[in-house]
Amino acid sequence: MRNVYHYDVLVVGGGHAGAEAAAAAARLGAKTALLTANLDTVGQMSCNPAIGGVGKAQLVREVDALGGLMGRAIDAAGLQFRVLNRSKGPAMHGPRAQADKRQYQSWVKEELEATPGVVLKQEQVDNLIVEEAAGGSAQQPQWRVAGVRVRGEAEYRAAAVVLTTGTFLQAVMHTGEAKTAGGRAGEGTSSGISGALARLGFGVERFKTGTPCRLAASTIDTAALEVQPGDAAPQPFSFLTDAIRGEQLVCWITRTTPEVHALIRANLHRSPMYSGQIASRGPRYCPSIEDKIVRFADRESHQLFLEPEGRRTQEIYVNGISTSLPRDVQEGMVRLIPGLERAEIMRYGYAVEYDYCPPNQLQLSLETKRVCGLFMAGQVNGTTGYEEAAAQGLVAGANAALLAAGREPFTLSREESYIGVLIDDLVTRGVDEPYRMFTSRAEHRLALRHDNADRRLTPRAAAVGLAEPHRVAALNAKQAAIEAARATLAAYRMEGVPLLERLRRPEMQWSDCVAVAAELGEVADDVITQIITDVRYEGYLALERQRIARQRQHAERPIPDGFDYGNVRHLRAEAREKLATVQPRTLGQAGRVSGITPADLALVLVHLESRR
User: Fold this and answer.
1) Closest CA to 31 of 326, 381, 401
2) How far apart are alpha carbons 556 and 550 in whole angstroms?
């Protein structure tokens, strides 16, 4: 006899996507169960012990502005904070923080355990439970999810299920010729869910990712390395954190050498990626050291960053040397690197192959098109990175709760958020390699800065119920302070010109304003940053708003549900197939489908006009 448990929302997987999904669902009032094979690894940083960076930092601050966990977690567990790209404009800045990975993981688990409405369960999910959907047709899903089955003759029933399975679907780890089933060192794999998805008609494909070796700090000659300190005034990620007070640790920089490259070339035939053992594609923007040597054959060295994994561990993460070469080759190449001549490897690098579902099978809410109530988030959608996973998890979890409550879905546009860019790219364009966020992907990045994420998105979160009252109150106080300071700047003049106007000039400093209006000396640093950035970007943003308005004229034109592209005269067969697969909601989304030309859009628009 099966044991049956009932919830509103089920989240399968306890990584960064799963944690945000469960927390978001609970904030919207859903009774939520997070099911994971190992409760000791909830929130674990499987690879790099760091959060943020260029493009990724914007995602973290948006997750925080929507009430998520990641920003507060890294502020609590950060070892070193640095803002990347400081020499460029604010829209290109990328805060990044090294984490104490155990402290980070503990913070996330404790926060989930303390969240009303969330229950954590150690379970191995083997299958999905689906039922026939009422009114299923060619345009509407035939199935709706009803829950999951777990090992041990038990079922969990719910109106919505969020799959956040990471790299664990049919996962295989590779170190040289050795292969082991598992999605992370020391853990197993999940085989049942892939089969369940395939039986329901989902496309399931393979990607690969990798991780570098970890070294014992006591065996590294740090005196021979370049020291990389953190910022003197560390900047928090969460809008609720007033300051970072913990002591910052240093990182170190070294480089590979021609001798390292020669050793790798001599052993490429033993690398799973070059022997044919791995056929899956990996992240182009985070290549293995083998890929770097082959793709950049003219370079004599590559920079490596040695990053502590925690305050109470000897483990050092070697950023830049991800590899699946055999153990003896890893040992040989490490000892040819300056400062690492006597280094001992604590954990060897490896590659992981895993199943994912191409994300053009999703709607913008991250609900699947094929099964009502089934959502997907994180690496199962073909992405890479903690930040991308967390952003998807929050949106998927929120929409799962909204669906369970019979409410309208919550979606974000490209114009208002990097999260909107991420999800629109996945759903509309699909992926041919693991997707990673860059500022270049956001066409409205001047407005989508990390510093104004709260002003952009916390009101949206509050409207749907995702933002806590104290977060909304903090934003309101900040907005009032900005308006008061701007009024003061407009009232005082220097040489006949209002301070607000003079502040547009790069040479004008806040201290110059304080010299004229002493009360400005009481303004908080985050308010000062917002005012200066707003004032200096106003001209550019005005032009961008005009361009957006012009684009919206046709971009927001809706395309009816179930629109038959076969009836559009002269439309290319490839365009018909791609548009029918994606089923874009608007003409603008249709234009972002990979391979769709302006001529294709013109034909669709003519057909829409003729129908009207």
Assistant:
1) 401
2) 11
